[in-house]
């Protein structure tokens, strides 16, 4: 049962499921808080593969199996009912996202990673946060040691993105960032041609 539940959570992480989260009960909130607290102790930067990410989350989940039983009881679900428990797993994953558990969101990115995918190559650039430009998409701009501005496009969720969603530029001012990025070729209708942009893969605040 537990294995299937975890697999369903992992599947949920790689989809854009439209399943609406149910009202969070007291038992589930205790589980969410406990999971997020324990996940925050994991050094996600040292996890490089999907398998390692899955193992880390599974271990954390197993440490709180008693709370999962409480959630099942709270929702009148038999723990032997795998389809029903799978729905509980989806709900837990969705609510961890909804409550912006940063450690879970970072780990989820790696749980959804395709280790067999072709390596397109990434690069790392460090600098001081300057501003966020909004031009259809958000662009995070930093300055390097020579005070030259470098711009990186925020196209998709990336590791560390939760720190920039609600943060004001004033709170980020002067922060040193390490941005991992990759080149992406996009078509610009205005220029009637293709243009290479630097897509953000992850950002670490140093």
Low-confidence stretches: 14-21
Shape: elongated
| Count of the domains | 2
Give the spatial strand order of the biggest sheet. 3-2-1-4-5
**Number of DSSP helical runs:** 8
Please provide the count of β strands.
Answer: 5
Secondary structure: helix percent: 40-55%
Q: Gyration radius, to the nearest Å?
A: 20 Å
The portion of residues forming beta strands comes to 25-35%
Instruction: Estimate the mean pLDDT confidence.
Output: 80
Largest sheet: 5 strands, antiparallel
- Please write the string of helix (H) and strand (E) elements: HHHHHHEEEHHEE
Task: State the end-to-end CA separation.
Answer: 41 Å
Structural class of the helices, strands and pairings?
alpha+beta
Signal peptide: 1-20
Keywords: Signal
Layout: helices, strands, pairs:
Layout: H1 2-13, H2 26-39, H3 50-62, H4 65-74, H5 82-98, H6 102-111, E1 123-135, E2 137-143, E3 149-154, H7 162-165, H8 169-172, E4 176-188, E5 193-205
Antiparallel strand pairs: 1-2, 1-4, 2-3, 4-5
Signal peptide: 1-20
Keywords: Signal
């Amino acid at each position: 049962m537990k294995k299937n539940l975890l697999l369903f959570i992992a599947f949920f992480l790689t989809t854009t499921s439209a399943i609406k989260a149910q009202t969070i009960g007291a038992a589930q909130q205790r589980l969410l808080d406990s999971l997020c607290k324990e996940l925050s102790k994991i050094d996600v930067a040292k996890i490089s593969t999907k398998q390692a990410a899955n193992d880390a989350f599974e271990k954390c989940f197993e440490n709180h199996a008693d709370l999962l039983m409480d959630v099942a009881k709270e929702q009148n679900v038999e723990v032997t009912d795998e389809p029903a428990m799978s729905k509980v797993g989806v709900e837990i994953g969705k609510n961890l996202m909804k409550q912006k558990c940063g450690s879970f969101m970072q780990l989820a990115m790696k749980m959804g990673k395709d280790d067999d995918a072709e390596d397109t190559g990434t690069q790392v650039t460090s600098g001081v946060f300057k501003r966020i430009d909004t031009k259809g998409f958000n662009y995070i701009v930093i300055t390097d040691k020579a005070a030259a501005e470098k711009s990186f496009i925020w196209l998709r969720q990336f590791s560390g993105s939760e720190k920039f969603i609600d943060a004001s530029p004033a709170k980020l001012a002067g922060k040193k960032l390490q941005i991992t990025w990759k080149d992406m070729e996009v078509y610009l209708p205005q220029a009637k041609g293709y243009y290479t942009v630097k897509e953000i893969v992850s950002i670490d605040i140093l």
